[in-house]
Specification:
Thermophilic metalloprotease-like, 12 helices, 2 domains, 366 residues
Length: 366
């Protein structure tokens, strides 16, 4: 018998996160490791009357592609990917990994080239999502590789993943609906604010959020969830930030990142490990050195860093910034082929909005 929490998760993903309806087209992106969740989701979606296209990853294929593809192949955009982005109603990504370091030996310039080639399609995806023409959800399925990244056994990591989604409760959906109400109260307090200031041991940053919307997150686009985010005014960001936690992109870890901003643009960057990847990604296109997202972690049930941003960026006591593409629903106008989240510890810092304290020493104070 499958773990009953798998069945709960499948129901939430299909009916709450995506709100899938009869006749709609769903792309289900998955991996052989996640077969039990894939089948549970597939059954729920079929029972709901959806038309489901399953795209199952082949372990090792990405490494082969990035190492051996020609320039023409790196620049190629699959018509299938284009069709999904432009016409499908929903995309569900069941993310898991057999080897989190699969691409560690790949030239960062090849990765950046693929990101740049897909920039127009990324823009289309964000635009359709903002208009609610395309709904999308990302969740995680526990694997040995992900457990090792988190310094946990597979059993402990599975329990961590299910607990973060409140899937041990008889009615986890009730929790997420209540969380949505709580998040909306917080973003209502932030509505109409102009200036945000972040000050602490790891950050001295100012930005404008004038006419930008803070978006509450309670299990629709990400599951589990627990954050608020917006898109800063593109040319407004000034100052410096250090990211205590490593940032991971395409399986490559970049440590001790520091960024300096002037008029919204990253004008200097340093890292103690893989700075070449950092600089290459920031130089990948015109929007990559500007912020597309400023997010506030508000899920205090996630208490440890796991090297999986789906969980880590929700962790209470943190903020995250994403260089690159922003979400149009937040008001962001930044366009890029990348969207790279980086996590900052705020346990000895504060956030002021129009001079009023919103966040202090890792806690919401309003």
């Amino acid at each position: 018998m499958p773990d009953p929490r798998i069945s709960k998760l499948a129901r939430i993903l299909v009916h709450y996160s995506l709100g899938l309806e009869s006749g709609q087209q769903l792309q289900l992106r998955t991996h052989p490791i996640a077969d039990d969740l894939t089948l549970a989701v597939y059954e729920e979606a079929i029972r709901a009357g959806a038309y489901v296209f399953i795209q199952n990853a082949v372990p090792g294929a990405d490494e082969v592609f990035f190492k051996y593809a020609s320039d023409a192949q790196l620049d190629y955009i699959s018509p299938v990917r284009k069709l999904v982005t432009e016409t499908f109603d929903a995309v569900l990504n069941l993310r898991t990994e057999h080897n989190t370091r699969e691409l560690s030996g790949v030239d960062p310039k090849r990765i950046a080239r693929v990101s740049k080639a897909g920039a127009d399609l990324t823009k289309k995806f964000f635009e359709r999502a903002a208009r609610r023409e395309l709904r999308w959800t990302l969740t995680a399925y526990p694997s040995q590789a992900m457990a090792q990244e988190a310094d946990m056994s597979l059993n402990d990591y599975r329990e961590f993943v299910f607990a973060a989604g409140i899937l041990n409760d008889d009615d986890p959906l009730a929790y997420w609906k209540a969380e949505e109400t709580r998040q909306r109260r917080l973003v209502d307090w932030l509505k109409g604010r102009d200036q945000v200031a972040l000050k602490g041991a790891n950050v001295d940053l100012r930005m404008s959020v004038k006419d930008r919307a803070f978006i509450p997150c309670a299990g629709h686009e990400n599951f589990p969830d627990g954050e608020m985010f917006t898109g800063p005014v593109e040319d407004s960001v000034e100052g410096w930030i250090r990211f205590k936690y490593p940032a991971i992109e395409y399986g490559q870890e970049v440590s001790d990142i520091e960024l300096w901003f002037e008029k919204g643009r990253v004008v200097r960057e340093t890292a103690s490990k893989n700075q070449g990847l950092l600089t290459t990604m920031l130089d990948s296109d015109a929007g990559a050195r500007y912020l597309g997202e400023f997010g506030i972690g508000a899920n205090y049930g996630i208490t440890r860093f796991t090297k999986n941003m789906l969980f880590d960026e929700k962790m209470g006591g943190t903020i995250h910034l994403a260089v690159g593409a922003g979400y149009p629903e937040s008001g962001s106008k930044n366009e890029s082929g990348i969207h790279w989240d980086m996590l900052c510890d705020m346990n000895d810092a504060e956030m002021l909005a129009n001079g009023e304290r919103f966040y202090s020493n890792g806690k919401l104070v309003i």
